[in-house]
# Entry
Amino acid sequence: MLTDYLQEAMHRAKYKILEDGTYYGWIEELPGVWASAASLEECRRELESTVEDWLLLGLKLGHRIVPLGDIDLNISVEAGHLSG
# Structure
């Protein structure tokens, strides 16, 4: 289930090239989750790592995780366990 969430988040990622030639990536549904890097591929990797860290920290702290599509991790967290 965590892998599905991460994949769904990355499918929603948006990227743009900044004036200095670096790449900026973000996921609108996940406020504060963004990355920047010298290449698009590096930016994608950094963004994926940021989503992973954001997700794991949020689950550890008991924060509500923004549902993406039909993936709602809060159901499993509220039940006291994570499946998948």
The mean pLDDT is 91. The first strand starts at residue 14 and ends at 17.
